[in-house]
């Protein structure tokens, strides 16, 4: 019996299928093994992005770190992550917008500048209220090779146990009269700030009108509420976002009962963010810390001449660190730089410049985690990897170790193979970004044998350093490294 002939369209379809599968197979075999192509870099051919998540000192909150080692436009981003999707989505939306704006700005620069460079850094601080309210202050800073810089402060709020994200309106019970009282109070404090005399814009009161949106950016602690105001309130661009702190005890009547202060604190100073620290008042200081920086700064056998140790954390930074080195050189001052291994890897020339200038090299871990929360193997890796990178880049060993956030206990001490150094003077430069307040803190807290904490990643720190050194010299202090201080 004769077999029936297949229709032509069947043969055609079969042929097309075979050809398509062949092409697909060739494509799969020939494509790179990684499914996501890494962005190109003109210096070393590739740029990678690393993302890491670790537990923070605060229950229910993780710290996510995202870093790009692109030589032309690196970025380092840290943000909080909770178990609540809505909060996480809001934070990620903000992070993505800031990163996109940074990359867009770089693309614009490429059209007018040859080989432009830029850097983006986003970090956050956590403030906790006894009610369970967490305030996260996100600080986004960028700088570009054309000299333009920017810094934006944004706040997020969360009760990790309930998922509630209270706005300032919620804190004030959404009462318009309470808003009027708050507006008047903030205006009064702003007018009384001596650092703003003559620098308030003519229309600054418009930005303090009783509108909830004018007081959107805030943080809440057990003792005060802090507002980060619109920068247009001031005419001096170097001031950035004015900060006003209001003791909760002075506004108990207009905040929810859960947020009210139990009693007035006569020692509270309204120009200071956060309560008077018992432990090192550094971002996200661990509740599990065994000790504070107090007491570790002073050698029992004090020399007759007054000495002080200047220390700088979290660098090196390609723009700010060289400025700080130049200022230290003018004052013939030596300091100790506690460097992050990840940043030494990104900026080896800057790290080498620190060593060549004769300063002491310190280890500040690779990625700035809270070591108390990490297993011992990971702690050892953070320390040893950083020490190895510092020695590789500078040819000199790190001689001191500072755990991030001052978080240390007996276990961490046993794992560190180099001396641990904390501090007793916290300038809070990471928090207020105000050059004048750095000097105020130094004047208030420095004594013979003090170790002063600053950061060489903030432009405001470089701006205020000369005044700090000039003041300390006038008070008869000489500048030594932390190792020299303990000799």
Task: Provide structural commentary.
- By secondary structure, the chain is of the alpha/beta class.
- The chain folds into 3 domains: 49-158, Fervidobacterium nodosum Rt17-B1 like (Heat Shock Protein 90), CATH 3.30.565; 168-259, Alpha-Beta Complex (Actin, Chain A, domain 4), CATH 3.90.640; 307-485, Glycoside hydrolase/deacetylase (TIM Barrel, Alpha-Beta Barrel).
- The protein is 32% helix and 19% strand.
- The protein contains 13 helices and 16 strands.
- Strands 10, 11, 12, 13, 14, 15 and 16 form a 7-stranded parallel sheet that branches.
- The longest helix has 26 residues, at 85-110.
- The relative contact order is 0.10.
What is the average of the pLDDT values?
82
Instruction: Please state the second-level CATH architecture of the largest domain.
Output: Alpha-Beta Barrel
Q: In percent, how much strand structure appears in the residues?
A: 15-25%
Distance between the termini: 107 Å
Q: What spatial form do the alpha-carbon principal axes imply?
A: globular
Helix content: 25-40%
CATH class value of the largest domain: Alpha Beta
Structural class designation: alpha/beta
User: How many individual β-strands?
Assistant: 16
Number of domains: 3
CATH topology of the largest domain: TIM Barrel
Radius of gyration: 27 Å
Question: What's the total helix number?
Answer: 13
């Amino acid at each position: 019996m004769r077999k029936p002939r297949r229709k032509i369209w069947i043969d055609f379809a079969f042929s097309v299928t075979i050809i398509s599968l062949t092409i697909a197979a060739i494509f799969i075999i020939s494509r790179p093994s990684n499914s996501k192509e890494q962005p190109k870099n003109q210096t070393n051919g590739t740029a990678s992005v690393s993302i890491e998540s670790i537990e923070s000192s605060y229950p229910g909150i993780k710290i996510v770190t995202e870093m790009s080692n692109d030589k032309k436009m690196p970025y380092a981003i840290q943000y909080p992550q909770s178990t609540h999707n809505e909060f996480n989505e809001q934070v990620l939306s903000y992070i993505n917008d800031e990163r996109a704006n940074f990359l867009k700005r770089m693309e614009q620069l490429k059209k007018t500048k040859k080989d432009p460079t830029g850097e983006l850094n986003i970090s956050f601080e956590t403030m906790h209220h006894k009610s369970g309210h967490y305030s996260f202050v996100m600080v986004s800073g960028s700088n570009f090779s054309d000299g333009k810089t920017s810094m934006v402060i944004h706040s997020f709020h969360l009760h990790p146990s309930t998922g509630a994200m209270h706005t300032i309106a919620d804190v004030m019970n959404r009462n318009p009269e309470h808003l009027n009282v708050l507006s008047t109070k903030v205006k009064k404090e702003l007018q009384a700030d001596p650092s703003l005399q003559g620098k308030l814009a003519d229309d600054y009161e418009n930005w303090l009108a009783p509108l909830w949106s004018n007081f959107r950016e805030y943080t809440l602690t057990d003792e005060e509420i802090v507002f980060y105001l619109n920068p247009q309130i001031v005419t001096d661009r170097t001031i950035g976002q004015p900060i006003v702190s209001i003791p909760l005890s002075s506004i108990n009547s207009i905040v929810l009962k859960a947020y009210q202060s139990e009693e007035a604190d006569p020692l509270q100073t309204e120009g200071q963010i956060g309560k008077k620290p018992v432990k090192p008042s550094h971002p996200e200081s661990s509740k599990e810390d065994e000790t504070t920086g107090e007491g570790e700064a002073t050698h029992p056998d004090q020399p007759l001449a007054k000495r002080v140790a200047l220390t700088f954390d979290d660098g090196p930074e390609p723009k700010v660190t060289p400025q700080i080195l130049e200022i230290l050189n003018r004052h013939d001052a030596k300091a100790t730089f506690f460097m992050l291994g990840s940043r030494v890897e990104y900026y080896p020339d800057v790290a080498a410049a620190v060593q060549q200038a004769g300063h002491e090299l310190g280890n500040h871990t690779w990625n700035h985690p809270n070591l108390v929360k990490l297993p011992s193997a990971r702690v050892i890796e953070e320390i040893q990897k950083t020490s190895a990178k510092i020695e590789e880049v500078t040819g000199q060993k790190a001689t001191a170790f500072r755990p991030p956030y001052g978080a240390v206990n007996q276990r961490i001490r046993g794992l560190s193979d180099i001396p641990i150094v904390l501090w007793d003077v916290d300038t809070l430069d990471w928090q207020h970004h105000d050059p004048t307040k750095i000097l105020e803190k130094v004047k208030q807290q420095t004594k013979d044998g003090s170790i002063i904490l600053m950061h060489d990643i903030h432009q405001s720190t470089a701006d205020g350093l000369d005044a700090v050194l000039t003041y300390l010299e006038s008070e008869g202090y000489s500048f030594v490294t932390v190792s020299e201080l303990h000799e």
